[in-house]
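Q: For a teaching session next week I want to show students how multiple molecules come together into a single three-dimensional assembly. I've collected the sequence lines for a complex. Could you give me the predicted structure tokens for the whole thing so I can convert them for display?
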Amino acid sequence: MSIDGLITKIKEKENPTVAGLDPKLEHIPAYLVEEAFGRCGRNLGGAAEAVWQFNKRLIDALYDIVPAIKPQSAYYELYGWEGVRALARTIEYAKRRGLYVIADVKRNDIGTTAAAYAEAYLGASEIGGAGEEAFGADSVTVNGYLGSDGVKPFLSYGKSIFVLVKTSNPSSGELQDLTVGGETVYRRMAALVKEWGAGSVGRYGYSEVGAVVGATYPAQLAELRKEMPETYFLVPGYGAQGGGAKDVAAAFREDGLGAVINASRSIMCAYKKEGYRPEDFARAAREEAVRMRDEIRGCIF
Amino acid sequence: MSIDGLITKIKEKENPTVAGLDPKLEHIPAYLVEEAFGRCGRNLGGAAEAVWQFNKRLIDALYDIVPAIKPQSAYYELYGWEGVRALARTIEYAKRRGLYVIADVKRNDIGTTAAAYAEAYLGASEIGGAGEEAFGADSVTVNGYLGSDGVKPFLSYGKSIFVLVKTSNPSSGELQDLTVGGETVYRRMAALVKEWGAGSVGRYGYSEVGAVVGATYPAQLAELRKEMPETYFLVPGYGAQGGGAKDVAAAFREDGLGAVINASRSIMCAYKKEGYRPEDFARAAREEAVRMRDEIRGCIF
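A: Of course. Below is the structure for the complete assembly, covering every listed component.
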């Protein structure tokens, strides 16, 4: 689905946030994990079953509140091919529930191989003359270190992508903040993102090539917002990583659009806060998603 | 397995090459694909079965010639979770045949997530107090755009990794060749690779943190070889991408070590050359692997 599809959902739900689904077993209530082990064994298959059950109930609790989910592929690959099957199921189920799905895969490779990744996550795989969707996500995250021919294959499907520009982690500056001819590497990446997006601006004024910019660097967020008026931002780092609502406010344009803020652990693990039992995890997630929506809306309007 | 493990296999087989397994359906003989469709259906599952059958026979034909294989993850993800199951089977089978397995995944993320990827591909996933290998590769490729905390988690398992420094694709220079304070971005990445590898130098004089440097840029290959005496190079771009044996010779040190040269399509698709039938694909791959070994040995000794 195009960036317009995401923005339409954001407007409908009046909520510029995305729920990150990073279902490491330690984040899943123990009773749910044990139930899955009981059914499928104390192994990768049982872990993947716990992941799927957790996600399904979170999606049921969140689908009318948030416009989008962002499954982080690492936490599915962690449980082998069975975990990857849980990822495919999660994407399919979330789309059925009307959610926009950003597969956080940060894939990158030379042109022909990037084309295979794009086909896998955004397109349909060619099987004996017909096409079959392998994952069928609406959008992916992409690492642009290889330059244009590693990124452009992802733009063949009329869907949006988000390219890493300035990441939220502490060491992101080691490469990204280096100064190149008077500007930083992340600014140069931002310029490439604008180039790749030119010509694909939709009806809300944003291109199909978005940028990942961490909430943990609010000054850079504000700088890039000014520099990239037609680029949608996917902003990680809110909540558990330390970014607050005031930090992320700089990611938005004056119309209240321009960014989608991710929170993973604070929603998934909301049940660990006082006043909840593990059995309440889905309700706790929903209440945290509502709180986060209201907090961020309060800062941008 | 450590870099010493790879070097030992290279010395035993007197062969510094790795066979890339990028089994897109169009590379697999049609009769094998049709057989798999007949057994498993004309769908992702059938495609994954074709991939597995192709790989298994290639490994049987190559295991006493090449020291290592390098499955490119994109061509497995292309066939969904069933494709990823074929990847897991391929890794397990290749290791049983004594091959060193470099999972070409180019993963990258913030620290906690990089740790999950590392656990998935190099370590064991924690499942109810015990550990189970999800993929169990010997080594992975890593994209270092996020800096140290996205790379260091991969170094917890006493295994080697290969970090993208100067990639083989035409547009690699857009970011990598930018000049930063008198040196290029790829030189800065090379300096980080040396830093990450310091303290892990094994008995042959090489660290656990290798570098990916494309055969298509022989001048940079020679420059980096001089700059990084303790870094093992994984060199893609030989064969179908245009790099020749003379181009890759610069990747080696005087002792004949220091690099492992990858070829994917030229080995997988050797059966498409004159004189072979599709049924001869495994023999054709073996003969091409022998030819490549001899060609590269001829240039470095």
